[in-house]
Design a protein that fits this description.
Elements (H helix, E strand, L loop, with lengths): L3 H214 L25 H9 L39 H7 L5 H15 L4 H8 L3 H14 L2 E4 L2 E4 H5 L1
Antiparallel strand pairs: 1-2
């Protein structure tokens, strides 16, 4: 009986042989598979190369046919474009000719319209220039009238102002004259007092000399006393002519103003110092009077009656301007100015902002 070990080794040898056999069979199978795969690969390569060749050939044929078709289509398209271009050129030329004719007609119509508008505009401008010239001429006439009225008002105001200045100057001259008169009287009183003192001193001196002479020579050969000095002073000249007289002379058309009468110098008395005479007071200048206007209108309104009418009109209207007084009473500018000047000088009327008012109403 064989042992277990022998059987196991026999099995082992058998299994190795089977393994070797299977290994040989697997190698043979793998080599068969490899040869078969190589053959299939070679066949596939040949088929692929053939397919590529066919594809290349078909592609070349397709490209050639496509190129031919594209050339044909391009030629057709080129022909169509040429025909379309010719049509477009013809239509464009026809449109341009039509537009040119329309523009020519429009230009001619526009030229006619512009010529008509220019004629209308020239006529309108000429009418406007003529109207503007007439309006300017009227404005110039109105401005000249207003300017003449303003100049007349200004002259009247200046005359009134000059008359007021003349009255003020006369009042000032009278005041200065009275002050000079008072000063002269005061100086005369002082000189009389000095002469009285001098007479007393001379009497005392004479009595003193007489007493000395009597004490030396006795009662013989006593000289006779000299006469006492007397004071002989002259009064200054009369007061210059008053403003009323000057105005009366001016209204009586006496053009030259009265000359100033210088006061006489007082007599010089020795031994006292000489007394200087007061400076001469200039006489007020009489305002000039328009003789032509006064001559032509003096007989219409007496001055006193005219002053009363002007005063009544100002009182009734509670203030009036110079043109209003002239229009209301129907007098000229010189008559109105002379009467107002006299009323202002008398203190019955006053002027404020070219408006003449009653002095009593203003003072209230």
């Amino acid at each position: 009986m064989s042992s277990l070990r022998d059987s196991w080794q026999a099995l082992r040898v058998q299994r190795q042989q089977e393994f070797n056999q299977r290994q040989i069979e697997v190698q043979e199978l793998l080599s068969g598979f490899s040869a078969e795969r190589q053959a299939q690969a070679a066949q596939l390569r040949s088929e692929l190369s053939q397919f590529q060749q066919e594809i290349r050939t078909a592609t070349q044929l397709f490209l050639a046919s496509a190129s031919q078709q594209r050339q044909i289509q391009a030629q057709q398209l080129f022909q169509e474009l040429e025909s379309y271009t010719r049509v477009i050129k013809a239509e464009t030329a026809e449109f341009l000719s039509q537009v040119t004719s329309d523009r020519t007609l429009m230009a001619q119509q526009l030229t006619r319209d512009l010529q008509g508008f220019r004629r209308e505009l020239s006529t309108l401008v000429a009418a406007l220039i003529q109207a503007y010239t007439e309006k300017r001429h009227q404005d110039e006439i109105q401005i000249m009238q207003e300017l003449a009225t303003y100049v007349e008002d200004l002259k009247a105001d200046v005359q009134v102002y000059l008359s007021e200045l003349g009255a003020m100057r006369e009042r000032r001259a009278e005041q200065v004259w009275s002050e000079l008169q008072q000063s002269h009287d005061k100086r005369l009183a002082e000189v009389e007092a000095l002469f009285r003192d001098l007479a007393d001193f001379r009497a005392e001196l004479t009595s003193y000399c007489t007493s000395i002479r009597q004490s030396v020579w006795g009662n013989e050969g006593v000289p006779v006393a000299a006469p006492k000095p007397t004071m002989q002073l002259k009064r200054p000249a009369a007061k210059p002519a008053s403003s009323n007289k000057v105005q009366a002379k001016a209204k009586a058309k006496v053009a030259p103003a009265p000359k100033a009468v210088p006061p006489a110098k007082p007599a010089a008395i020795a031994p006292p110092p000489a007394i200087e005479a007061p400076a001469p007071v200039p006489a007020p200048v009489a305002p000039k009077v328009d003789e032509t206007a006064s001559n032509s209108d003096a007989h219409h309104h007496p001055l006193a009656q005219l002053e009363a009418e002007i005063c009544e009109h100002i009182r009734k209207m509670q203030g009036a301007r110079l043109p209003e007084i002239e229009t209301a009473l129907g007098i000229n500018r010189f008559q109105a100015v002379d009467a107002l000047r006299a009323l202002i000088k008398e203190g019955l009327v006053t002027q404020r902002d070219r408006v003449y008012l009653i002095q009593e109403e203003v003072s209230l």
